[in-house]
Amino acid sequence: MKKDGDLDTFLRGFEKACRQYQLPTDQWARYLTPGLRGKALEVFASLPREQDGDYEAVKQALIKKYQLTPEVYRKKFRALQRGPQDTYRDVVDGLRTNFEQWIQGLSVTTFEDLKDLMVKDQFLHLCPVEVRQFVLDREPKEAAKAAQITDTYDANRIPAEQKSATASWKGGKPTTTPRVPASRPSMGPAPSSSTWTAFDSCKCYTCDQTGHISLVCPERQKMDPTSEAPGPTAAILFVGGAVGRAWENLQPVSVGNNVTVGLKDTGAEHTLIRPEFVLPEELIPGKTLTVTGFGGVRRPIPMARVFLD
After folding, report:
1. What is the pTM of this model?
2. CA 143 to chain centre
3. For residue range 219-236, what is the model confidence (pLDDT) as tens digits?
4. d(CA 50, CA 261)
5. Integer angstrom CA distances of residue 24 from 55, 58, 86, 240, 246
6. Taking each helix axis from N to C terminus, what angle separates 88-105 and 70-79, rounded to the nearest 10 degrees?
7. CA 103-104-106 angle, 5° bins
8. Structural element, H or E, at residue 129
């Protein structure tokens, strides 16, 4: 195994070689461990001594460390793209491998299980991001359970004034003002003032005036005449850190084949990603973006094209 190699490919190739040579499974661990490198070797070294010869225990520890969860394989399956050197047969093989790893991780063994998985996956795809993450955190096994959790989420988040307005309305118009979202979707385009009425009550943290946000503030342009006029851009996700339970302003995000957490910032124009998530071939030669940090320190940051989900 290479130090920064693909653990998934390595394990599948290793198991296939063991079957070809008809090695008993109780001997697999002794052949696996001498081939481990880097982080994988560190995982093995930290295991209790009684697990040294247990291949499944070693494998599960590696999978946990590399975060090769069913959700990772689901995202790989959904996001797989054909590379410059790939044939269409390579694409099909990649889809098949990711799909099989996805369903195996969830112990899907029957057609009914597979059907329910497909329904649940499509259902979650239709849900807003924050609802989807709320449901995924509770790890429902069935589509019906996912729907039940979603209904509970909605019921608990209807504002009290909206509940009273709905209950007392007898055919006339409700007396309360409909609720307007306070921020745009984390990866959606920047809305214009003509289509996003919530800006009427927003206060800009650059000029302290209401009616717009800092992204489109006229004073901001005066202070930095070299900056380009803002246009429809994606919101920022500051990507970095360990995977864990998402809380108020954090959400899981995939960077290529890595899964980590991202900090949502709907007032920013670009996405900042920790350098260890960027491959050398993803960097844009000669392209940088000057970023102002704490204390007014300005430094050029390399730019790259990276797949984010």
Report:
1. 0.44
2. 21
3. 766 655 544 444 444 444
4. 34
5. 11, 16, 35, 41, 42
6. 160
7. 65
8. helix 129-137
